[in-house]
Amino acid sequence: MKPTFLNAEKPLLTLIFSANDPEEAIGTVRRGLADGAEAFCIQTCRLAPQYRNPEDYRRIFDAMEGRPVYVTNYRHGANEGVSDEEIACGLRTLAGSGATLCDVMADLFDPQPGELTVSPAAVERQKALIDALHAAGAEVLMSSHVLHFLPCEQVLEIALAQQSRGADIVKIVTGAETMEEQLENLRITHRLKQELKVPFLFLSGGMSGMHRRIGPMLGCCMYLCSLDDGVEPKPVQPMLRKIRQIRENWG
């Protein structure tokens, strides 16, 4: 059966990681498998440029032993100074190399604060890229990293815009500076579950421990986890072994 991030019975335990080269990536994958990872997210913009090719991608993906793989190709890391056209080309290469889920930034072709463009020309190019990724056999996640708290209606507006462009999964990352904002993010998670027709991943930074642990039980399609507490890619990612226990003992 082909790996997929869609229609899982439970939120997928997804290990998010970065690596400089394939050997480091494969080592992390093996540790993740030992800890119970059900899926992987590799931040390919952190790979050294000489390893960003189909052969090395396939080596890394093969090590995942049939688990679905989510790939990001953001503007930082090795992509500093790279054009959005080149980022899109990189996503097409990843899809052709066997990536399950490709992350298309919602401001691709028109960079904006909060990562959501409303430019008709940019939106049409995004839709064409999503069609191309689908044609290559990949699923598509569309992301907006806002990184500060937003009220419910604004989060929903972003989510519906992403959904309308053909994304299979919607992803929004906001923030919380108070317990009240974190609790509101949990309520927003429930609202997204009610309103969207596609799976979603709603995350936050700042005061986010509760949101990242409970959010998937309210509708988020996956957990993004680290191997160890306080390690890269971001300390905010909860530890895989701990999250596995939380999910197994929920309800």
How would you characterize this protein structure?
It is built from eight helices and eight strands. By secondary structure, it is of the alpha/beta class. α5 packs parallel to α6. It is globular. The protein starts with 11 loop residues before the first strand and ends with a helix.
Which short descriptors sum up this protein?
single chain, 251 residues, alpha/beta, eight-stranded parallel β-sheet, 38% helix
Provide the helix percentage. Answer: 25-40%
N- to C-terminal separation? 29 Å
Q: Ranges with pLDDT <50 over ≥5 residues?
A: none
Structural class: alpha/beta
Shape: globular
In sequence order, what are the helices and strands, one letter per element?
A: EHEHEHEHEHEHEHEH
Strand content: 15-25%
Oligomeric state as shown: single chain
Task: Give a topology summary.
Blueprint: E1 12-17, H1 22-34, E2 39-43, H2 54-62, E3 69-72, H3 84-96, E4 101-105, H4 120-135, E5 139-145, H5 152-164, E6 169-176, H6 179-195, E7 200-206, H7 209-214, E8 222-225, H8 240-248
Parallel strand pairs: 1-2, 1-8, 2-3, 3-4, 4-5, 5-6, 6-7
Q: Nutshell version of this structure?
A:
The chain has helices at 22-34, 54-62, 84-96, 120-135, 152-164, 179-195, 209-214, 240-248; strands at 12-17, 39-43, 69-72, 101-105, 139-145, 169-176, 200-206, 222-225.
